[in-house]
Amino acid sequence: MDVFYVSHGSPMLPFEEIPARDFFKGMAKLVKHKPKAILMVSGHWETRDPMVSTTARNPTIHDFYGFPRELYELKYEAPGAPDVARRAKQLLQDAGFKQAGEDPKRGLDHGAWVPLWLAFPDADIPVFQLSLQSHKDAAYHYRLGRALTPLTREGVLIIGSGTTTHNLRHMLPTVPDWGKAFDDWLYDCLIHQRYDEVTQFMDKAPYAKLNHPTPDHFLPLLVALGAAGEGATAQAIHRSWHGSFSMASYVFKPAVGAPGPQQQQQEL
């Protein structure tokens, strides 16, 4: 399975007449085979150690306030995938993430269910989530993804869900120079496979701190990139803006015959 990174933007995306919504409504056509399960890595679930959700039926988490009533009436109650989630936890533990655990009650936050509501509206594919550790760096999250590479060969669709530029305190109605510079830098790095620079984005990217005052909405990209495995190639599948937010999305295509991740014995 290819691995995806998507910019989920505002919770209001289902109601917004913008290009990103149209992209999500057609996204399923980019997935070659119906997945056995979907693993969502959202910028809206953070824990001290890696956690996977093992609920049997996903409740919809409306993790926002001050929006119109009709948004709170939307639900995406896809089945969970507890067995696949436990397989993911074991892969993480085998790779050195010894404290990886399970959350049997966690539902789908809006970074997960909003894009899925648009892309897979039937809600018939089992879904589970993996948490982030934003107190850890980008390289850590790349390794987190690498541990999960075997899932891509087992019919699991992995989607990192963040927003390519994400500064809520500097929201603007137009594209800022500092946002465009970051977005163009990321595109160039991914298309030309300068992945080492991406794992050091806080030091390498122009205006990194201004675009991501906190890293939570960029780290899903690192997990997705890692999960695609060594030698993966990147393609931009959508590029648009919603004010100062880049809604860029990418697909990472695993290299044919690429080896699995090296299992690390030390605890990360």
* Total domains: 1
Unreliable runs, pLDDT <50, ≥5 residues? 261-268
Q: Outline, from the CA principal axes?
A: globular
Q: Mind summarizing the main beta sheet?
A: 6 strands, mixed
Number of strands: 10
Measured by DSSP, the beta-strand proportion falls in 15-25%
**How do the strands line up in the largest sheet?**
5-2-6-1-10-7
CATH superfamily membership, which one? Answer: LigB-like
The name CATH uses for the topology is: Protocatechuate 4,5-dioxygenase, Chain B
Mean pLDDT over all positions: 94
**What is the element string, with H for helices and E for strands?**
EHEEHHEHEHHEHHHHHEEEE
What radius of gyration results from the CA coordinates?
17 Å
Number of helices: 11
Q: What is the end-to-end distance? A: 26 Å
How does this model look, in words?
The protein has eleven helices and ten strands. With 268 residues, it is α/β, with parallel strands linked by helices. Strands 5-2-6-1-10-7 form a six-stranded mixed β-sheet, sandwiched between helices. A two-stranded parallel ribbon has the order 3-4. Strands 8-9 form a two-stranded antiparallel sheet. It is globular, with a radius of gyration of 17 Å.
Core attributes:
268 residues; alpha/beta; six-stranded mixed β-sheet; Protocatechuate 4,5-dioxygenase, Chain B
Summarize the helices and strands and which ones pair or pack:
Blueprint: E1 3-7, H1 19-25, E2 37-46, E3 51-53, H2 69-72, H3 82-94, E4 101-103, H4 110-119, E5 127-132, H5 138-147, H6 149-152, E6 156-162, H7 177-191, H8 195-198, H9 201-204, H10 208-211, H11 219-227, E7 233-238, E8 241-242, E9 245-246, E10 249-253
Parallel strand pairs: 1-6, 2-5, 2-6, 3-4
Antiparallel strand pairs: 1-10, 7-10, 8-9
Helix pairs in contact: 5-11
